[in-house]
Records
---
Amino acid sequence: MKRHTTPALTGLMLLLCLFVTLSGCKKKPAITPVTPIPVNTDPAISSFSPTSGRENTVLTIQGKNFSTDFAKVNVTINGKTAPVATLSATKIEVKIPANCGHGFVQVTSDGRSALIDGFTYQYNKITEMLYILQDDKLWAADLF
């Protein structure tokens, strides 16, 4: 048995094939690569306490991005090295060095530094007393 197709049916089939072919050839949108935002790894000091103290008082420094390697961390108070007692990525404890004066606390971690102002060194107050015995009375006076 012979099959006959009409020209209208053949034309319709050709249009259908053309539609399917062209609809599959859509251009895909180009994907633009995203540039990653750099992460800041510099150390940062958010606070320290106490804000004043004497020699060997423990000073606690709060912040972020501190190295946890003692060999890579240096802390100074007004340029005098403060020995590091404990260390984490967010907290450092140091002992206040003698006669370090007033001013800045600086943390250097992996070669990068953070600085904060506001430390006051408390000097030991030396009081001298002057005693005077006069007319069987003892007088005392403070000398600074």
---
Amino acid sequence: MTELIDTHVHLYDSDFELDIADVVAIAKSSGVSKVVLPAVDSSSYNKMTELSLSLQGFAYPSLGLHPTSVKDNWRDELEFVRSYTFMLKTRFEEKLKIEIDVQPDQDDYIVPMSMQLLIE
């Protein structure tokens, strides 16, 4: 059987709270062996991480900022990502290259970016 990996599913969203077990069971019975949980901003990390821990081997969290979720606080959100990626760079050293490029003249508006990084 072909292994299917859903690379973008927000199972940690409150819409799935009541039937998460059924949703996961249906996905698995349909051949989905893994899912990637994309974060949208720093507020999504706790729920996303908790769910990935409860579904180890099936659900994998990812680090990210989505342009529709990050508003006037984009600097704080970007700093959150920088802090997390600093820990990753420390852990993986030269095996990991991460580049965040915000031009000086882009300082007054929302960064139009969506970065997803699979964390295992």
---
Amino acid sequence: YYYFSKDSVSYSVGDEYMWGESVLVAPVLEKGIGFRNVYLPPGNWYLWNSNESIKGSEWIKQEVTLDHIPVYVKAGGLIPLLPEKKQIHNTTEYSTSEITWHYYASATASNAVLFDDDGSSKNSLEEKDYELISATVTPKNTTHIFEFTSNGGSFKGNPGERIFHLVLHGFPPAATLKTSGKLKAEKRLNPNGETEITFTFTGKKAVLEVVQ
């Protein structure tokens, strides 16, 4: 209820939790069940890694399996992840040389900040050995403007360039892409039928426009 203090129902839900401001997790706590009731707070939501928008302020019945925990993302959520193929065992193996950003369509502006350091230093904040990568999304009618910037920070092992994959949830397959300046980007449909845009981020401001 921290993020939805005006929603009285959220106060009474004790078996769900928010992972940050955008991700809601509804763990399975009963043995052998095939469905569970999930309360979605106000706003529009997406089942994780899907394109279907679900209206909030409602209880829904969600199918569950042994390998699937119900996870939802609030519309406007912008989630950076390492590629699925990348497996790490501790933070010293962590690298942001390749990042997949998942964006869930919304009519309101969004932003996210990725903190990056060497994964081992205890004093990176005090010594300013880190980088902040900011991402903003500004919807204008049928166009979404994506902007990626860096604060110019650096640290040992900091990637000089990064490969960004931008996966768009809730967008039509026919969405078109425009880039600014010399930025080169490739658009394709991934195996889930979602628009995925790939480009190289050098730390300089990168702007992309996606028209639905």
---
Amino acid sequence: MSPNQPQPPAPVAPLARPVPQRMALALILLAALISAGAMGLALWRHEHRLGFNDSDVWALVPNASVHSWGFNLSPLLVERDDLTVLPFGPRKDDISALSHPDTIDHRLGEHLPQDGEHIVGVVIGGQARAYPLGLLLMHEVINDTLGGEALCVTAQRWAGTIAAYSRDVGGETLEFGVSGLLYKMDLLVFDRRRDPREQSLWSPLLLQPISGPAAERGLRLQPIDCAVEPWGVWRQLHPETTLMTRQTQFPMEYQPALFFSPTSARPDSAAAKNTSTRRPDLDAADPLVVVIGPRSMRGYPYRDVPAEGALVDQLDGRRFALRRSTTKNSGITLESLVPAAAGTSPLTRAYVRWSHWEAINGPLD
């Protein structure tokens, strides 16, 4: 072609086809769903940073994600498959532990618990304190000081575990938080340290670390006796008791809780089905009092403690009696029939539901 001849026009790209109206609407709907999902997840994490909502039902996340929680799992003293997490969290500290909560003299306070509401009571050095169970379940971990001793009180709704123990461990005073991990559906706490690699995971019920430097050192938690009683009963037993208030830094509405309430056992979950051959007569939600001695512990179902008289047994060579009060929803008292020898620890109590005690193959009476 001669250079003087006109060049043919460049091909014109075909016009883009207009997006059909239905497809445009579908894309808008998809974007809206993604936005709503992100907002819902943000709200979920915000809510659970304040506490745990019992009305929700959760499935378990595959165990492979346990490492993403960022804890030192070396050494690990339990089977890795027994560590589980909940979907989308809660991660470390998403459920906020309380430290040094406000307390009042109940004789001067307002907005007190109802007489039938359960509390967790502790007596140290002649000083008594009550922690409303509903508040404790929302935060799961309370770091406190009573009678000159640093203590931690924990409660977890899934397994129904309630325990108290000293925060003085291995020559230092620890502060515990909620890890977001579960061991056989039960709470695991962690000790706060600047370097996460130095943090360890602990089982409050087993009173031992399950991973991290504390596990490598073979440290143990020293149990502190605790009672689960209706507020009215505890107040009569300890007229000068102090009470943890509902005034926290979290704008929450705390709900009363009953440890013995059958609805609090989450019957919709797989953990609520009793498949035990050891005690097929027990419901998964049945509460147990765990008697803890210097070397071992043993669980006693509430229904085994007679309404009149006592259940007498011995643990680590110490005879004791478990008694039930006639007051509705009252707890189980522990009476040592032989005083502890000088320099030895007294028998103490913790609490758990049958489904979890069976899961960890806890010893029975």
